[in-house]
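Deliverable D2.4 — example input (structure tokens):
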């Protein structure tokens, strides 16, 4: 049975730590309600102890499509509506493209891409029926650019961005917004214990050394995940939220350089493209 409305209702995947935890706490602090999911539901005990029945803790592995639909239904049954759906669950896979196994590639896509797709599909009927809602897809600066060693991760986020941009156009007539959140490097567990690594091929030893040095320089000053909460609240409170939103200082300069390079290359090769028109 739905409970009496009290603030907005959030559904957030991956709330045991990092971004998901910071955003859940920010929502709860201002009086909203949160359906919080985690693979280990015990990690949510602290939220329940502090915020009581405004938190619905849900055990969820987003790789499981049926479980995703069941979790979204449970949240709607408990709170009576869904206002903000955040697909945050995911992890980083580290491995050069030749090193990534089929099993590793499929696992990365199952979580980062298909997990978000299933939760999105599960939530949309409820959002359409109520004529409102906001879906936030947690991508990365690696969702618009690409870096060595995380190519399969880049692939998962580029695919997430692609279907989300299409989705935004499909659901706008129903009063539903979509925002793709693109963080820089943050002090979360993304590259720590939650990450996975392919076995290194000796032939790439020099490449690995160079990549490690580049990552060290690029990520020398990671952001504080807790500091992103204010930005997320501003995004969900906006009358016209953005389709894409960076978090952190670094992404804009990376994006500008990357897109300038793309446009220059496309322009250089435009005569070839035009000859291909026939």
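Example output (designed residues):
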């Amino acid at each position: 049975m739905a409970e009496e409305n009290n603030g907005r209702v959030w559904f957030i995947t991956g709330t045991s730590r990092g971004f998901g935890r910071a955003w859940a706490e920010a929502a709860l602090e201002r009086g909203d309600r949160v359906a919080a999911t985690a693979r280990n539901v015990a990690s949510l005990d602290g939220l329940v102890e502090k915020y009581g029945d405004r938190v619905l803790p849900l055990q969820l592995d987003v790789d499981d499509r049926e479980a995703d639909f069941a979790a979204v239904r449970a949240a709607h049954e408990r709170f009576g509506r869904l206002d903000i759906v955040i697909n945050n669950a995911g992890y980083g896979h580290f491995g050069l493209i030749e090193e990534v196994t089929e099993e590793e590639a499929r696992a990365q896509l199952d979580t980062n891409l298909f997990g978000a797709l299933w939760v999105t599909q599960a939530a949309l009927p409820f959002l359409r029926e109520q004529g409102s809602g906001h879906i936030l897809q947690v991508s990365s600066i690696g969702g618009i650019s690409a870096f060595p060693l995380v190519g399969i991760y880049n692939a998962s986020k580029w695919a997430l961005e692609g279907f989300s941009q299409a989705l935004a156009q499909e659901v706008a007539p129903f009063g539903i917004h979509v925002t793709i959140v693109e963080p820089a490097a943050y002090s979360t567990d993304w590259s720590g214990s939650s990450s996975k690594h392919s076995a290194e091929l000796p032939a790439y030893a020099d490449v690995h050394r160079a990549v490690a040095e580049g990552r060290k320089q690029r990520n020398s000053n990671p952001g504080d995940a807790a500091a992103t909460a204010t930005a997320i609240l501003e995004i969900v409170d906006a009358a016209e939220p953005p389709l894409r939103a960076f978090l952190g200082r670094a992404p804009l300069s990376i994006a500008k350089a990357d897109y300038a390079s793309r446009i220059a290359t496309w322009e250089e090769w435009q005569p070839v493209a035009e000859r291909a028109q026939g």
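Confidence is low (pLDDT under 50) at residues 1-5.
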